[in-house]
Amino acid sequence: MAARTKARKRALDLLFEAEQRGVDAAELLRERLAAPVTEHPLPELTADLVSGVAERRGQLDELITTYSQGWTLERMPAVDRAILRLGAWEVLFSGDVPEGVAISEWVSLATELSTDDSPRFVNGLLARLAEVKPTLA
């Protein structure tokens, strides 16, 4: 697994854990940076992704809800919510990687970790956000 893919997966793990535990993702990130739970420190990309989502969570949730066509955030599997938040942040705000690459990476994680329908849903929603990105400024 490529380093950036691993970093994305760790960001997904952190967001998912924060939601399951009912804690703030930024606070969980600070804890993990201060006292890592693995022998490998968190990659900078992981921290950037989690921080970015934490800073813009309300806006991301609003965009995901608006463009998910009839799916509320509560109705989505928890892993899909985390994937969509991270993917939406990376597509809309990161500027670090081409949108198509980011979408492909998040779809791949949805394929690996979520339901059979999730990859298509994640792909469609992130592609739609990439399409409307110029109008969101």
Describe it.
There is one protein chain. The chain is an all-alpha fold. It has one domain: NusB-like (N-utilizing Substance Protein B Homolog, Chain A, Orthogonal Bundle), CATH 1.10.940.10. Helix content is 72%, strand content 0%. The chain has 7 helices and no strands. It has helices at residues 3-21, 25-34, 44-55, 57-67, 78-94, 99-113, 118-132. Helix 3 packs across helix 5 (78-94) and helix 4 crosses helix 5 (78-94). The longest helix is centred in the first third of the chain and has 19 residues, at 3-21. The chain is globular. The model has no long low-confidence stretch (mean pLDDT 94).
The first-level CATH class name: Mainly Alpha
Q: In total, how many domains does the architecture comprise?
A: 1
* Percent helix range: over 70%
**How many DSSP H or I helices?**
7
Low-confidence stretches: none
Overall pLDDT: 94
Largest sheet: none
Based on CA inertia axes, which overall geometry fits? globular
The value of Rg in angstroms is: 14 Å
Beta fraction: under 5%
Number of strand elements: 0
Q: What is the architecture at the second tier of CATH?
A: Orthogonal Bundle
Distance between the termini: 34 Å
* CATH homologous superfamily (4th level) name: NusB-like
Order of helices and strands: HHHHHHH
CATH topology: N-utilizing Substance Protein B Homolog, Chain A
Derived structural class: mainly alpha
